[in-house]
């Protein structure tokens, strides 16, 4: 019994230490704004779960209508995963499962080509413009202009939405998903995919954070649902924790961070 108590206390100590390490207490909490219609746009399936899955689940549960637009089927993905069948079909199916887990009202799966969004700017502009006009969202969410780690598709997605926000839809709030600097410096990002060697200078600093509470559990389930991306996730958090212990690390991430575009 004494040994069990020591183990439990050690686990609790590790959890508290990890929570204090990854939480940026200097970033203010978001004022409780209520949203009715939120439009989330990312290039690849799993972008939403990694960056803001907890927030999406939380607002969906409160009655908000959340539409998720994924621009590609992620066919370039992780090479070894293609052994298990049609990689496009795998990633689409995973995205559908995650949408159900997070309570997303509408999943729109496009196929503009993984890794070539920069060649499709006009088509993307038309598609996204039409969707914003149709959805009439009171919040837009996407990557920042650094594309998180300089990924060409991420940057193109952000540039288009930022341009539309500033020219066509100035009244619609736009939030970039982001992370505290202390987290970014400890996560191994796939910089081999970065097209801009100075992307770190363009990373948006969070303007606010949101407490996700119990929504951390469906967020964690979403991460595990993206089995085709497990290698990438393992490489990304290897400095923090082994992939088999991912759930423990994610349980500490009780806040998600955003930068509001002014």
Describe the protein in words:
This protein is of the alpha/beta class and 262 residues long. It has eleven helices and seven strands. It has helices at 2-22, 47-61, 87-102, 121-135, 147-150, 152-167, 181-184, 199-202, 216-225, 230-236, 246-251; strands at 37-42, 65-70, 106-109, 139-142, 174-178, 208-211, 255-260. A seven-stranded mixed β-sheet has the order 3-2-1-4-5-7-6, sandwiched between helices. Helix 3 (87-102) links the parallel strand 2 and strand 3 (106-109). Helix 2 runs antiparallel to helix 9 (216-225) and helix 4 packs across helix 6. The N and C termini lie far apart (56 Å).
Ordered list of secondary-structure elements with their pairings:
Blueprint lengths: L1 H21 L14 E6 L4 H15 L3 E6 L16 H16 L3 E4 L11 H15 L3 E4 L4 H4 L1 H16 L6 E5 L2 H4 L14 H4 L5 E4 L4 H10 L4 H7 L9 H6 L3 E6 L2
Parallel strand pairs: 1-2, 1-4, 2-3, 4-5
Antiparallel strand pairs: 5-7, 6-7
């Amino acid at each position: 019994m004494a040994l069990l108590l020591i183990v439990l206390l050690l686990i609790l100590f590790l959890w508290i230490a990890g929570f204090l390490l990854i939480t940026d207490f200097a970033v203010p909490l978001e004022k409780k704004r209520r949203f009715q219609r939120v439009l989330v746009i990312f290039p690849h399936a799993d972008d939403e779960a990694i960056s803001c899955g907890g927030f999406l689940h939380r607002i969906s549960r409160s009655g908000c209508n959340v539409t998720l637009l994924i621009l590609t089927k992620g066919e370039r993905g992780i090479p070894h995963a293609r052994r298990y069948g049609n990689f496009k079909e795998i990633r689409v199916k995973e995205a559908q499962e995650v949408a159900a887990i997070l309570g997303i009202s509408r999943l729109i799966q496009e196929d503009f080509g993984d890794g070539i969004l920069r060649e499709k700017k006009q088509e993307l502009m038309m598609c996204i413009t039409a969707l914003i006009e149709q959805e009439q969202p009171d919040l837009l969410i996407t990557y920042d202009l650094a594309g998180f780690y300089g990924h060409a598709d991420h940057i193109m997605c952000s540039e288009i939405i930022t341009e539309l926000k500033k020219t066509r839809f100035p009244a619609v709030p736009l939030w970039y998903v982001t992370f505290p600097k202390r987290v970014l410096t400890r996560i191994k990002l796939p910089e081999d995919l970065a097209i801009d060697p100075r992307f770190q200078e363009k990373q948006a600093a969070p303007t606010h954070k949101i407490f996700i509470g119990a929504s951390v559990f469906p967020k964690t389930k979403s991460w595990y649902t993206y089995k085709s991306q497990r290698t990438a996730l393992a490489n990304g958090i290897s400095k923090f924790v082994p992939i088999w212990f991912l759930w423990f690390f994610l349980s500490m991430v009780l806040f998600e961070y955003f930068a509001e575009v002014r």
